[in-house]
Amino acid sequence: MPNLISMGLDSELSFKIMEAVRKGKVAKGQCDTWPEWKEEMIAHGVPDWYIWSCEKIKYMFPKAHAAAYVMMAWRIAWCKINFPLEYYAAYFSIRASTFNYELMCQGRERLERYIQDYKSREDELTQKEKDTLKDMMSVLEMYARGYEFCKLDIYEADARKFRVIDRKLMPSLSTIDGLGDKAADAFVEGRAAGPFLSRDDLRNRTKLSKTVIDLMGDLGLLEGLPESDQLSIFDFG
Q1: Containing H/E element for 199?
Q2: Mean per-residue pLDDT for 86-106?
């Protein structure tokens, strides 16, 4: 486009020619106005080799897009170095689609055992497991830099976003296996009424399945929460 403008072509026409050429429409014969544009280019002294090249290009990536991507990469790298926890919080919230609290947030040693298991059967992994392994490697990098996760607090954790608390990372509720985004949103709505009185109360207010609630209990996320609202004589012991 700048070349055509420098040769005297109208700026708007130069833009249209550029878009048609770089997208391959001219090369594929899908540009009805190309003969007219070609005559305009010849009239302005555009070299034959230049016009011939325009008719051969099947795709050309815009320089402005490439520059924007490089600038974004530099910004991300700068944040990763200078604000590591904030970087990982954003990355895990947005990019880590298979993040799993049970697999990844129980310490580096346990994570490395899972990674070793996945790699030992790498040829047999499902696509979801491959994505999980990728996320586990990102978490391993975070551990290697000396950062840790704090225990997920069901009253403090966000439904979908990771949080930085006391220089540690708190995973989102949606990272609990079986508790997707919508269920995590429902959990946040349910807890807005106040502390849960029991697991039954939690189930009624959040509509979570018993399987998910049992898993949360196994992960130590429901400590001190009785099974039912009903009092037992042993509660007074």
Answers
A1: helix 199-206
A2: 96
What backbone torsions phi and psi does residue 164 show, to the nearest 5 degrees? -95, 115
Rounded CA gap, 183 and 207, in Å? 8
**Spatial CB neighbours of 226, under 8 Å, sequence gap ≥ 6:** 197, 198, 199, 235
Tokens representing 205 are 């207010």
Segment holding 163, helix H or strand E: strand 163-165
Token pair 């040829």 in the structure block, residue: 123
DSSP of 110-177, one letter per residue?
A: HHHHHHHHHHHTGGG--HHHHHHHHHHHHHHHHHHTT--BPPPPTTTS-SS--EEETTEEEPPGGGST
Helix (H), strand (E) at residue 82: helix 63-82
Judged by DSSP in three states, 169 sits in: strand
Give residue 224's pLDDT: 86
pLDDT band at 182 (very low <50, low <70, confident <90, very high): very high
Query: What tokens were used for 33?
Result: 């106005």
Max CA separation in the chain (angstroms): 99
Q: 78: alpha, beta or left, given left = phi > 0 and alpha = psi -120 to 50?
A: alpha
Computed on alpha carbons and rounded to an integer, the radius of gyration of the chain in Å comes to 28
**Side chain identity, residue 198:** S
- Structure tokens that stand for 159 in this block: 């439904």
Which pLDDT tens digit goes with each residue over 31-86? 999 999 999 999 999 999 999 999 999 999 888 889 999 999 999 999 999 999 99
pLDDT in tens, 102-137: 999 999 999 999 999 999 999 999 999 999 999 999
